[in-house]
Amino acid sequence: MKRFLLPFLFCLGLYSCGEKDKEISGNTADFRFEIVDSMRIDYLGNLWIIDFDSGSQSYLARGNRDMEFIILDRDGLTRSTLDFPSDGPYALNGWLNPIGLRDGQIEFQLSNQGFFRYDFNGNRIWRYELPFDYFYISELSGDPIYPLGDEIAFIRPERAEVVTDQSLKSIFEGIYGQPIMQVFDTVSNRSRETMAFPPNSMYSDGNFYFWMFPTVIQSGKEWLFFSEMN
After folding, report:
1. Which residues contact 87 (CB under 8 A, 6 or more apart)?
2. How many other C-beta atoms are found inside a 10 Å radius of the C-beta of residue 108?
3. What is residue 213's three-state secondary structure?
4. pTM score, whole prediction
5. CA distance 183 to 145
6. Which of 129, 145, 171 is the last residue of a domain?
7. Could you list the residue range(s) of the whole structural domain that residue 67 is in?
8. Rounded to an integer, what distance in angstroms lies between the CA atom of residue 67 and that of residue 55?
9. Do 123 and 148 belong together in one domain?
C-alpha cells in the first residue's frame, strides 16, 4: 500500500504547487502602474523638485540660476521665488547642500559656514555656525539638520586637521570607522557623536566605496538610513 501511496502524494504535491503558482501568477497580473495625480508648473526653463513639506503643503524647487529657489503650492502655483544674495551683509557664497523644507521654513547647510533657516519671503531667521572649520567630501542627501530640542543633529563633517597628509583610502577608512551623526547643543556648544555604522552593512565588508554616508531619515523616534549605491 505504501508503494502506491508515495507516488500519489508526490503527484498531489506537484498539483498543489502548480495551482499555487497559477494563483500567484494570476494575482501579480492584476498589478499595474497608473498616473493618479499630476502637477503643471508655469516656469520657463529647467526646474528640479527637491523636497515637500507636509506641514505647509509646499514644494521646494531649484531654478535655472545658481541661488534661485522656488516655493510651490500643491497645485504647482508659485508662492515665492528666492534668489539668495551673493554679496552684502547676508551674502551666501558656496554650495547649499543639503537643503530642504521643515514646518514652513527653508533649512540648508552652506559650505563651511554652518546651518541656516529662512522663511518663504527670503528672511534669515536663524543661523548656527560650527566652532571649527569643516568640510564634506561628497554631496549629501536628506535633511540638513534634525532638531532635538536644544540640540541639532546632522551628518558628521570632516575636519581639516584630522585628514591632513592622508591618502583618500585612509580618509574613507576613517569615515566608516566613526559614527554617522554629530549632535550639538546650541546653547552650550557641547557636541557628541552617535549612530555607528551597522556591523552587517556594506560598509563593514572591508571595501571602501568612495561614498561618504548613506541617507539618514528621522521618522518619529526611529532613525532610518539607506544607501543609493548598488
Report:
1. none
2. 21
3. coil
4. 0.78
5. 10
6. 129
7. 40-129
8. 24
9. no
From first to last of its 230 residues, what are the pLDDT tens digits of the chain? 434 334 444 444 444 455 544 554 555 567 777 888 788 899 998 999 999 999 999 999 999 988 999 999 999 999 999 999 888 888 898 888 999 999 999 999 998 899 999 999 999 999 999 998 898 887 888 899 999 989 999 999 988 665 555 677 777 777 788 899 999 999 999 999 999 888 777 777 767 776 666 788 888 888 887 776 54
Ramachandran angles phi, psi of 171, nearest 5°: -60, -45
Residues 61 and 100 in one domain: yes
Q: Do 138 and 60 sit in the same domain of this protein?
A: no
8 A C-beta contact, residue 71 and residue 60: yes
Domain total in the chain: 2
Computed from CA positions of residues 145, 57, 63, 224, in that sequence, does the dihedral angle turn out positive or negative? positive
Q: How many CA atoms lie within 13 A of 203 on its CB side?
A: 23
117 and 141 together in one domain: no
58 and 104 Cβ atoms separated by less than 8 Å:
yes
d(CA 172, CA 170): 5
- What residue type is assigned to position 53 of the chain? D
- Of 83, 103, 129, which closes a domain? 129
Does residue 18 sit within a domain? Answer: no
Rounded Cα distance between 179 and 24, Å, is: 43
